Amino acid sequence: MKPAFVFGTRPEIIKLSPVIRAFIEAGIKPLLIHTGQHYDYEMSRVFLEELELPEIDYHLEVGSGTQAEQTGKAMIEIERVLMKEKPDVTLVQGDTNTVLAGALASVKLKIPVAHVEAGLRSFDRTMPEEINRILADHASEVLFPPTEEARRNLEREGITENVYVVGNTVVDAVLQNAEVAEKKSDVLERFDLKPGEYLLITVHRAENTDSRDNLEKLVEILESLPMRAIYPMHPRTRNRLKGFGLLKRVENIENLTITKPLGYLDFLRLEKNAFAIMTDSGGIQEEAIILNVPCLTLRYNTERPETVKAGGNVLVGLEKERAMNYLRRLMEEGEFYERMAKAKNPFGDGKAGKRIVEILLELYKAGKLKVRSSRFI
Ligand code: UD1
Ligand code: UDP
Q: Which of 16, 68, 196, 316 is 20 to 30 A distant from 133 in Cα terms?
């Protein structure tokens, strides 16, 4: 079987790495296609190196742009490669513009798409990611929802065949790298941070960064933090803060360290040793509960409701009072802290990558890895 991976951003590289590894362990070298949606060293190459992935076969250098520019350019370039290489299946992961472009280009060439982390829904159609999720799921032939909840979302939309709940490959990635991170990363020493005594912060969502009002609310939260904090800043947020004239204000906050985005090993070690995490990232909400660290999510909805139901994550939006209230409770009520920290990981056992490869190989051998004319026959 000849599988092709299409990816282009930081979280896709991290979450696909266990699947790529599982193919290699099964004796199959997959084709790797990088759209170049993320292109800075610390947003892309660092992960390829740290995760020891094979060389990329095609760099498409799509770069940044408007939604349509980025998606359209990626589609054109991906189609060119798929037409030449004719893989048996195209794997995509998550909900970025790269995923939508890969799924559409592939299915229209009648190359079946396998969607890793299918079925997530925030039920907020104003997010570009929600549109990408829905369309990619409907273009896919084989779907790998991480949880039962995600499977039910697919069922509600009529997608019931070739759906396999396998867990989330984020667990595989954490288990494969957490120990290495503890050994290799000196991030705590570099930033003079003590385990359990700092907050880890990330923010990059369009809905939080694209409006000055929302960014200002974020700045007010950062100015009110009750303990030392570190914030590896996504380039999108840095650009927006600068554009709205807010960057200096953030840089001047005394107990807040702003850094460039960090490599995966540094970031994992920072997560594992944080007192709590405040984020609007999808993957970081998942990693927090896997690593037993309380998470306050700076959003009003989440496509990871399992983390909230399990008790490890609270949606605080950009409400300063609400965020500070939870932080105070975490600092003052030991029992409350323990309850959040010990919430059970809902994303599986860390063998999702292996399962995905086994299922695809079985379908292929049975001649069933094909784009069918209808899901309902
Ligand atoms: C994208 C995904 C988002 C995902 C995130 C992971 C979409 C619609 N969004 O958001 O779901 O959570 O990746 O981090 O696909 N930039 C750089 N250097 C880079 C990459 C980006 O400076 O290497 C800057 C550019 O100014 C760019 C901006 O960041 O315009 C946004 O990048 P883009 O790829 O459009 O979206 P993300 O915010 O990264
Ligand atoms: N991450 C990282 N360095 C950072 C910030 C995040 O390695 O400075 C990792 C993090 O461990 C997680 C992934 O990047 O695996 C999350 O990516 P991001 O928040 O950009 O995207 P999302 O998950 O929201 O799509």
A: 316
Tokens of 248: 């200096």
Q: Which residues of 61-97 are buried (b: 16+ CB within 10 A; e: fewer)?
A: ebeeeeeeebbebbbebbbebbeeeebebbbbbbbbb
34, 115, 204, 234: the catalytic one is 204
Q: Which atom of ligand 2 is found nearest the CA of 283?
A: 23
- The rounded mean pLDDT for the chain is 98
User: For this structure, is 204 an active site residue?
Assistant: yes
Q: What is the domain-level CATH number for residue 331?
A: 3.40.50.2000
Amino acid letter, residue 168: N
Number of domains in the chain: 2
Cα–Cα distance for residue pair 243/226, rounded to 1 Å: 27
pLDDT-derived band at 285, boundaries 50, 70, 90: very high
Taking the CA of residue 44 as reference, the ligand 1 atom at the shortest distance is: 23
Residues 149 and 207 grouped into a single domain: no
Q: Is the CB of 299 under 6 A from ligand 2?
A: no
Indicate whether 206 and 295 sit together in one domain: yes
Which tokens hold the place of 301? Answer: 């909805």
pLDDT in tens, 183-203: 999 999 999 999 999 999 999
* Three-state SS at 30: coil
Residue nearest to atom 9 of ligand 2 (CA): 264
Q: Is residue 56 part of a domain?
A: yes
Chain center to CA of 253? 28
The tens digit of pLDDT for each residue in 48-99 reads: 999 999 999 999 999 999 999 999 999 999 999 999 999 999 999 999 999 9
At 153, the pLDDT band (50, 70, 90 cuts) reads: very high
| Type and span of the H or E element at 315 | strand 313-315
One domain for residues 361 and 292: no
- Answer for the pair 42, 262: CB distance below 8 angstroms, yes or no: yes
Q: Assess whether 9 and 130 both reside in one domain.
A: yes
